[in-house]
Design goal:
The relative contact order is 0.16. Strands 1, 2, 3, 4, 5, 6, 7, 8 and 9 form a nine-stranded mixed β-sheet that branches. The chain has 341 residues and is α/β, with parallel strands linked by helices. Helix content is 40%, strand content 17%. The longest helix is centred in the last third of the chain and has 27 residues. Helix 2 links the parallel strand 1 and strand 2. The protein has ten helices and nine strands.
């Protein structure tokens, strides 16, 4: 989710051609290294994303390094489960055995996975062919417990909301589940990966448990931060654990028109604040907000100064300030709920 712990910087070129040399070196396995096996977990909850789900599964099949297995977890939707069982004969299709929501579905996928590394792909994301190759190459280092990649927005192509809206600041692309300005532009340690396309060493789940119930998206309710809370626990409980961000491991994350409205922007920011309050209760405020403080001190002031220089972009500056306002309001609301029990 949002606000990964990084050194603030301009991530506008994080997945461009300037990283070709980085890509070629990152994917070479050391001589004599054992190949790392991967299980890819895709969680789905609605038939409205059927075309996206089939494209996500197809993108995993097309990887330069094949997955050991593909696990499709259906979140309490019998019709979608039956259709998936008949449409994906080469995949393991199972119902969510936990509570409704993304955390329960991911934990179900973990239980069925057999690979050394468990890789998660959103049902509305499409992995580039070398996505797995880039991520798995890092696991030859035993300290690496997780690797995440870049999630680039796949904007609507038609209608009133085609392309990036002029008012939408790139520093807030986390609102739509994508990489945002402020992330590293090369391989670097982070607090937690972006959930649209990430991987965790299988053994890590046995040591720290799964994703926490009460966090993460449930259906279309835009809560989050399950990756944040898991990443903090992982680094706390596994000595020397490292989680990497590799911008060369790319997925294209679908953006629906309704997510490009002021109403969704406001709601998502408020929900992020609530989620951060829950994380702070579980793992402590210092761990939960360390990266957010750096993001607000360095990345956002630079964005406001940039966008106030031109009449064409002043609306983006206003949206940065409003985004902060609603996120802080959500955090306050979550903290009040926590204090009242």
């Amino acid at each position: 989710m949002a606000f990964d712990e990084t050194a603030p910087g301009d991530a506008s070129g994080a997945t461009g051609n300037e990283h070709e040399s980085e890509r070629s070196s990152a994917t070479r396995l050391p001589r004599g290294a054992e190949p790392v096996t991967a299980s890819v977990v895709i969680c789905a909850y609605t038939l409205l994303r059927w075309d996206d789900l089939t494209a996500a599964v197809a993108s995993v099949r097309a990887q330069t390094v094949p997955a050991g297995d593909i696990i499709v977890v259906i979140d309490h939707n019998e019709e979608l489960l039956e259709r998936s069982l008949s449409s994906f004969p080469d995949a393991i299709v199972v119902p969510n055995a936990g509570k409704p929501g993304l955390s329960g579905a991911r934990n179900t996928g973990v239980e069925r996975a057999s690979g050394d590394v468990i890789v998660f792909l959103d049902d509305d994301a499409r992995a580039q062919p070398d996505w797995l190759e880039h991520m798995l190459a890092h696991y030859t280092d035993p300290a690496v417990q997780g690797v995440g990649g870049a999630a680039l927005p796949r904007w609507p192509e038609r209608g009133a909301h085609s392309g990036r809206p002029a008012w939408f600041p790139p520093e807030f692309d986390w609102v739509i589940g994508c990489s945002y300005v402020g992330l590293p532009t090369s391989v670097a340690p982070v607090r937690n990966p972006i959930g649209a396309g990430m991987s965790i060493r299988h053994s890590a789940f046995a040591r720290v448990g799964g994703f926490s119930d009460g966090l993460g998206r449930v259906g279309s309710i835009p809560l989050g931060c399950e990756e944040t809370e898991f990443g903090i626990r992982l680094r706390r409980d596994v000595a020397g654990a490292v989680i990497l961000y590799d911008p060369a491991a790319v997925v294209l994350h679908g953006v629906t028109p309704e997510r490009l409205t002021w109403r969704y922007y406001r709601r998502r920011c408020f929900s992020e604040g609530i989620s951060k309050a829950v994380v702070a209760r579980r793992v402590g405020q210092e761990s939960a907000l360390e990266a957010e403080k750096a993001y607000m001190r360095h990345v956002l002031p630079r964005a406001v100064r940039r966008d106030l220089r031109s009449p064409r972009t002043w609306r983006r500056a206003a949206m940065v300030l409003l985004g902060v306002l609603f996120t802080v309001a959500g955090y306050g609301r979550g903290s009040i709920a926590r204090a009242s029990g």
